[in-house]
Amino acid sequence: MGDIDLRIEKRRAAVIGGGVMGADIAVVFLSGGWSVHIVEPFEKTRNALPEKIRSGLGKLKAKGEGNLFIAGQLENIPWGEIEIAVEAVPEKLKIKRDVFAKMESLSRPGIPLTSNSSGFPISDIGKELKTRNRLLGLHFFMPAHLAPLVEVVCSQATDPGLAENVRALMKQLGKRPVLVKKDIPGFLANRIQHALMREALSLVEKGIAAPEDVDDAVRYGFGFRYIAAGPLRQKDLTGVDTQYSAAVTIYPDLCNDSFPSLYIAEKVAAGHLGVKAKKGFYDWTDEEILEFKGKYEKALLKALEIMKE
């Protein structure tokens, strides 16, 4: 069951939620020639979508573009023609469950119903659904149209064949999909990222290094190598025995707290939330934010070109 028909006349996707992630996910499909129906209930956000999407397509230098349709309600899109749906609404479990209940009742049987959630297990989101076998996590990374990785996350009820079809579709759209076979907290990439962040925050909290030195250690050290090879392949190059010997010494001293550090808890309590508060691990001005965002996106685009090669 659940085969995705990739014929041109069938290439229609629904994206539920027109915020930052939803708009960028729409760009991914549009740049691959799919027509996209975005559902966004808030008029101000709806009105901003065309320009956001034009900008995203421009950055990708997309050649083949599908058609964009914007609606205010789920009922207002042609569900009989939709081949895949991606939920990208705010991270509130009740909202997501309500959206999936509606999608299940409106959509054709067998099409993948997917969630971009980074926090809730897909099994929890679809707990009350009758067709849980077609429910998947489809976790993009910000910015979704530039970051190649997409996690295809299975629950115990997910049809494995459907998961493979969605994985193949993402690859066809130019993404680098990974299959996460078990629905665990944080899936794959965020678990690895948070393991790194736990140690990075611990090093700053203990006064061993400043935030800028931790950032430089990652960017210009092992992080620099990761654009060429992932951690396991890279250790094959340097020697698994070397990795093992280093682990014997380092692992006992690594942070293994099962709760967020006091260092970051204090920042959250103080409202030091990053660029949106103009203060986080660094202090920010409006000019610095604008300049850094431009450099950040430019670097991602260059990295994307390298990885395409």
Task: Outline the structure in words.
It is a single chain. The N terminus is likely disordered. The chain folds into 3 domains: 173 residues, NAD(P)-binding Rossmann-like Domain (Rossmann fold), CATH 3.40.50; 71 residues, N-(1-d-carboxylethyl)-l-norvaline Dehydrogenase, domain 2 (Orthogonal Bundle), CATH 1.10.1040; 39 residues. The chain is 47% helix and 12% strand. It is globular, with a radius of gyration of 21 Å. The protein is an alpha/beta fold.
Concise synopsis of the structure shown:
47% of the residues lie in helices and 12% in strands. It has eleven helices and eight strands. A hairpin with an 8-residue loop joins strand 6 (135-140) and strand 7 (149-153).
Features:
309 residues; alpha/beta; Rossmann fold; 47% helix; 12% strand; disordered N terminus
